[in-house]
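Appendix B. One record, verbatim.
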Amino acid sequence: MAGKTLYLGPRLKKLRRELGLTQANMAADLEISASYIALMERNQRPVTAEMLIKLATTYRIDVADLADQHADETAARLQSALRDPLFADIAIERLDIEDIATSYPGMAEALLRLYTAFGEEQLALATRRESAEGIAREPVADPVVEARAFLSARRNCFPPLDDSAAAAAKELDSFDAMQRHIADSFGLDVRLADDGLMRGGLRWHDYHRRRIHIAERLDHSGRRFQLALQIAILEQGEAIEGLVAEGRFAGEGSRSLVRRALQSYWAAALLMPYRAFRKAAEELRYDVEALAARFSVSFEQAAHRLTTLQKPGEEGVPFFFLRVDRAGNVSKRLDGAGFPLAQHGGGCPLWNVHQVFATPGLVDAQLIEMPDGERYVSIARVVRAGGGSFGKQSVPRAIAIACSAEHLDRLAYADALNHGEPTPIGVACRLCHRPRCIARSAPPMGRELVPARFRDSGVPFDFSAD
């Protein structure tokens, strides 16, 4: 132990203050000068092994108490932040990062807070709406954003609804059983109806004739879901209103969207009971097509349900869900994974959610890497909305579910991805600082474009690295 040195300035200062001592007091206790205490606290002198023993015996503390239990975590967070292409031209050694985290924890935390604030401001700038005159408008509450925030804050998981639906599923395990239940409990007659009656709708509660009409053009999974949704509306009002009341919404529009989302949640939980679905997901290694077939649901319904498996103590792989059309418009986001694209983004053309339009009906698996180095597995496929009869408009949409690459070995897609290189993607071009990206549609904010007087770089926007 002799001869070994450590720099523990901030922790030594913290210990002294916790003991209520001045530098002079501590110097007297340790039989050294006050100036030496000051130098150690500023990391200008090491804390030797002898000094550690003296501190432990004088103040009756465990030497381990001087160790920063969070240093490794802080170093990992710093390393992740510094992988951002924004810092690509700055050479920072791993040992330097660990030294900052260990010797200057306050400075490390300050840098991390600044980087987090920078990221939040970048996202705010990327999504801010301005008036035609270029003056920022007063922020207006967006019902869709509020509803998504409500679901995301709860990781799109509502155990009380799962428990209620699982109990009901024991009796309501088929379309016929649900049909009989609605007739017996509410005196409502369930019928299939053509488009002439439905006028393009999927479900209609004809209150005066006491009928529930389901569009006959729906496939079996669609019919079951609509009937399950009707049961949720008829029976789960009180439970759902209790959950809606937990939200802090600016208007009725947000509450309406959340109410509708929770009704759909219960319906999906009836068709795919939590424990049975999670067990099957593990057995089938999260193969979305196989899960859809086992539970007689659509690919999208199974993918959607995978984002909800975050019940405490019974968690599955956490997934994020995105649905986009050919133009890149996002019509649904669900976050059970903390994915960077959960609140913003989705427009990177290198992501397979945009590429599967070229191969409709086929599932594509892709390993992707974000600018900070984090890797994710993305499973994408095209689904269709509408249609069902000749001449009826049908809209193709691509859906993707994504999870952290740390779960790759638990997935059926592992064999196809384990030996491949990840595809680099970004949240949005304005926020992505990756150099030399041929898919870029705009330069990143804060970077100066390089004039192409003598050389064509071959990329849409060539920008400076500093």
